[in-house]
Design a protein that fits this description.
The protein has 77 residues and is α+β, with helices and mostly antiparallel strands. It has one domain. The chain is 60% helix and 13% strand. It has two helices and two strands; from the N terminus they run αββα. A hairpin with a 2-residue loop joins β1 and β2. The chain starts with 5 loop residues before the first helix and ends with a helix.
Length: 77
């Protein structure tokens, strides 16, 4: 991957993190101590049989990265 642009590596890392986050609701159903994990790392919403888990820190990083890319693109015109 030496000849790849740096964003390719970042993209591969984000895909891997995304796959892990997709699996989190399945894992959250079977781990009773999910509430002990800090909410900024893992936020779990449960209602009846519906479980939704996400990572606020990953969302924040993604938004900051996209904003930086947009600003860089506008800056180079």
């Amino acid at each position: 991957m030496d000849n790849s642009p740096p964003l390719t590596l970042l993209g591969a890392i984000l895909i891997a993190v995304g796959i892990v986050l997709v699996a989190l609701p399945l894992v959250a159903k079977y781990i009773p101590n999910v509430e002990e994990i800090p909410w900024i790392i893992l936020w779990v919403y449960r209602k009846d049989s519906f479980v939704f888990a996400t990572s606020p820190i990953l969302i924040i990083i993604s938004v900051l990265f996209l904003a930086a890319q947009l600003i860089a693109r506008i800056g180079t015109g």
